[in-house]
Input
Amino acid sequence: MSVISTLKNQPAILAAFKTIESHRDENNRDMIELTEIPAPPFGEDTRGKRVAEMFREAGLANVKIDEVGNVIGMRPGRSGAKTIALGAHIDTVFPIETDVTVRREGDTYIAPGIGDNTRGIVVLLSLIKALEAHNIQTEHDLMFVGNIGEEGLGDLRGIKHLYRDGAPKIDSFIAVDGGRDDRLVYSGVGSFRYRVTFKGPGGHSWGDFGDANPHHALGRATTLFADRAAKVSSEGPRTSFSLGRIGGGTSINSIPFESWMEVDMRSVSVEKLDEMDAVFQQAMIDGLAAENAARTRGDEITVDIKKVGDRPVANGDASSPLVQQALAAIGSFGLDPQLRSSSTDANTPIAKGLPAITISRGGKSAGAHSFEETWTDTDSHIAIQIALLITLAQAEYAGP
Output
């Protein structure tokens, strides 16, 4: 009998499953409360403090907020020989001024960030409460983490801090951040992110006509990049590119003094990501040169290319014990587990050759990163039960 099958037959775990099912209303209340606390990247403090309180209320010991803002709570094991970490990011993609009031339509909840990833924190809370309710013991220590900096320009800074040189060892990492219950992320999509700023003296649209225009340079550069990048992404391992944000200028009748944009490039291949990066860098230089060559007066403008994000490509091992146990746990609920690559907090440990996966937060999510993001409470207990099995397999169940 497999480890997962053995665990599913333990009386204490069967009782914990029922307790998790009973958490439905409480979980949804927690989800609403946390969703309505804004938590943009670099602005997670208020939500982080509430998550820390909830961790304590759920029964964790030694809850703290670390140097960068990660919320960490421990549940000691009998030997403490290893540390198994479960994490869910507390930040969302939305700026601080976003209206995050939750609306409800039947079993569907609507608000920015409600699924991605407020629901992930709720999964951790429900799991902790079930362990405590039935005094379920583990051989190894459990670390529960509400980590910061997963979204936008956060650049995985919370998880990177946990895996910094000299940090306490984490033997396995289980991230909760995904939709379908059958989805198991075991490899990481890498990404480069840049903020590009074209700069010049600016001026009057009529009186200084003929000067190089930073907006025009940006337009030339992005056109070159889009054309060249499409060729890179059209063949070989999956690779993507996107201009996500753009801005600059002072008025409609002014030549802007700066024009900026933020660009995201992703791939499952180190080589393809590097190829896309080279195309991007050259397009920025060529676009600048074309605008400077087209000017009829004034000085040349310049460009500043700043890397603001670097998520490593992470090639996971499908045969590892963690992945195999997760596959078995998902399959034990009659689901057909699907191995996937994605860009999640698991990227960092996987890229270091360390055991890590990302599992579902349960329910049905839709419209992630949109103002009309939804989460529907459909069999939401299953994801938490799956998380419990994986956790106890990794931390070695030691009885009630």
